[in-house]
Amino acid sequence: MTGLSTLTKVTTHRRKPERPRYFRRHLESIKRGNEKVESLPAAELDHLLCKFFIEVRKVNGEEYEPGTLSGIQRSIQRLLTKTAALNINILKDKEFEKSRKVLAAKRKNLVNEADK
Model's pTM, two decimal places? Predict the structure, then answer.
């Protein structure tokens, strides 16, 4: 059990640095790549997160697993926690409720599609 636990932590740690890049790549694709995520106003960041969660796909065009989308959301939060001068929490703050709802709806839709 200890070996599996260690392997999981190593694998998760190895993948985490890539996840914020997904969001940065999305910003670049909509011609906003020169802006720093951590300097955007909350309302604008929430709007961009909504668009991102709706549009994000793997490089091959397939949808991500619902859990992976949540992991990406948490990775973006870690990025903001590390770099933002403001105390922003996209997982809990009221200003980011819309993007959380969009993500929840997408996750639910992906689960429903998988059950068909």
Answer: 0.76
pLDDT tens-place values along the chain, 116 residues long: 455 444 444 444 455 556 667 777 777 776 565 667 777 889 999 999 999 999 998 889 999 999 999 999 998 898 888 876 668 899 999 999 999 999 999 999 999 988 87
CA-based R_g, the chain, Å: 15
Structural domain for 109, as ranges: 2-115
The total number of structural domains that make up the chain: 1
Residue pair 91/100 in contact by the 8 Å Cβ criterion: yes
**CA 101 to each of CA 17, 47, 54: distance values in angstroms, whole numbers, following the listed order:** 25, 12, 11
Which of 28, 71, 19 minimizes the C-alpha distance to 48? 28
Is the C-alpha dihedral spanning 97, 106, 111, 66 positive or negative?
negative
Residue type for position 57:
R
Cβ(72)–Cβ(90) below 8 Å: no
